[in-house]
Amino acid sequence: MTLSFNSEMVFIGGKWRLGETGQLIDLINPSTGKVLKKIARGTPKDIDEAVKAAQSALDSEWGSMSALERGRVLMEMSRITLNHVDELADLETNDVGKPFSQARADAVAMARYFEFYAGACDKVHGETIPFQNGFTVFTMREPHGVTGHIVPWNYPMQIIGRSVGGALAMGNAAVLKPAEEACLTALAIGEIAQKAGLPDGALNIVPGIGNEAGAALSAHTGVHHVSFTGSTAVGKLIQKSAGDHVVPVTLELGGKSPQIIFDDADLEDALPFLVNAGIQNAGQTCSASSRILVQRGVYQDVLDGMAERYRALKVGQAKDDFNLGPLISMRQKQIVDDYLEVAKSDGLEMIAQGFFADNLPQGGAYVLPTLFGNVPADHRLAQEEIFGPVQVVIPFEDEQEALQIANGTNFGLVAGVWTKDGSRQMRMAKNLDVGQVFINNYGAGGGVELPFGGVKGSGHGREKGFEALYSFSTTKTVAIKHG
Ligand code: NAP
Ligand code: MG
Predict the structure, then answer these.
(1) Is the pTM of this model over 0.90?
(2) How do residues 114-123 score in pLDDT, each as one tens digit?
(3) Fewer CB within 10 Å, N or C, the chain?
């Protein structure tokens, strides 16, 4: 059976209805620039109703379900997701401009998140603590209550899977504000949750604009935890707003993540990762590897190998499933074009570009993947998150310089290190200022089990893995004096 949700509705308390004002926003297919669907422009009042619906779910059926029962619902969400993988991928391909096979991988990953968190529900428990004689002390892990989830457009399914999945596993009730540029799969998840038997109000979805619906959600006093994935600039606003009513936030923000290639690296292994981590989802990935740091001895070999791969990269309509689709919007294309202009006027060495498929639609947000060499580590293109398919290659002399360059940005999300020297692997893992280090790989295939998040401007708190369950719950200590 196909999914049948109406994209113009909000999903509150288990009911699909128009938003407060009935006002709609156009969703654009970035491969063509044409209007794909319309979505609701949720208001602060819609958000308020969603928060109240979440609270009443906590006060009724959802709040009294056992961990085992919650796990079974999440497992059912995983199963239903897997039954709709191609349909979900189709929605994402048209909405986000993501090549079909990449969108399909996101749908499979979302099912895996629900599966992982389904299995984890009844495995998070408190402890007994040795204390003074005459006392028994133990801890309980409790949900925060209502959790707010504000997500970006680049990986809606994966981010909702890890964020909402973790929150539901711990028994929170969620209010989700998807990105206004990518809402379809978010709404599909509402239908999937309903089909899986998730009680009304445990998940509420209100599409809308960031500084309207998003701001209302992060500022709502009935929200007890905010999980935000997006830009550093908006992350700072969210933290301030949640701080006003003293609730915790998880901030998954941007990055400028390096891969560091030492002279002894296995280049055949490394090369596909070096390029793919820069151009996957057209570079619109928080953990994109936008900086490639190469030791002098293999510098030319790496540059040549990457250039050869760049020249084979084909950009086309997302449905045609080439290496790259369009960017999310003409606005994002303009941002990337501006960086390419800066590179040109500063005389950066352009090494290679990909190529366009024939007959691209006029209104599509297409850019060519572009590789720059010999880029100074303090240049804007080596410091700022571009969020497009642009990589800079930076040479270095030794381990110390590599670390200095790698740690020398405002971000600290992930890093990759390519070397066969075991001692150096350990030193680098210890000294890199990031949330995840990958040695002789990059990304570990997405690894649902692996805690993920950043330091510095890349945010704080962790999602994914078991650790997310601690973020989505709080410890209560009980001390009983019994003599
Ligand atoms: P964004 O502009 O920060 O938007 C993210 C979400 O926040 C969207 O739903 C947006 O709403 C909403 N928003 C905007 N202004 C808001 C406000 N004042 N109050 C509350 N919510 C508000 O980011 P983006 O351009 O969509 O995504 C790109 C950024 O996300 C990049 O920096 C990327 O690195 C980061 N990212 C990080 C991770 C990670 O896990 N670390 C993963 C993916 C992306 P609307 O857009 O709907 O208006
Ligand atoms: Mg769109």
Answers:
(1) yes
(2) 999 999 999 9
(3) C
What's the fold here for domain 258-447? Aldehyde Dehydrogenase; Chain A, domain 2 (3.40.309)
Distance separating alpha carbons of residues 353 and 207, to the nearest angstrom = 37
Place of tokens 């290659």: 393
Q: Is 366 in the pocket of ligand 1 (CB under 6 A)?
A: no
Express each pLDDT in 316-351 by its tens digit: 999 999 999 999 999 999 999 999 999 999 999 999
Single-letter code of the amino acid located at 209: I
The pLDDT-based confidence of 1 (bands split at 50, 70, 90) is: confident
Query: Residue 55 has which token pair?
Result: 């609270």
Task: Report in angstroms the alpha-carbon separations of 358 from 155, 258, 314, 373.
Answer: 27, 33, 10, 28
* C-alpha–C-alpha distance, residues 419 and 465, integer Å: 27
CA distance 445 to 276: 12
* Separate counts of helices (H) and strands (E) for the chain: 15, 22
Res 38: pLDDT = 98
In short, whether 152's Cβ falls inside 6 Å of ligand 1 is yes
CATH number belonging to the domain at 10-253+459-478, selected among 3.40.50.11190, 3.10.270.10, 3.40.605.10, 3.40.630.30: 3.40.605.10
CATH 3.40.309.10 domain position(s) in the chain: 258-447
Tell how far the Cα of 276 is from the centroid of ligand 2, in angstroms: 23
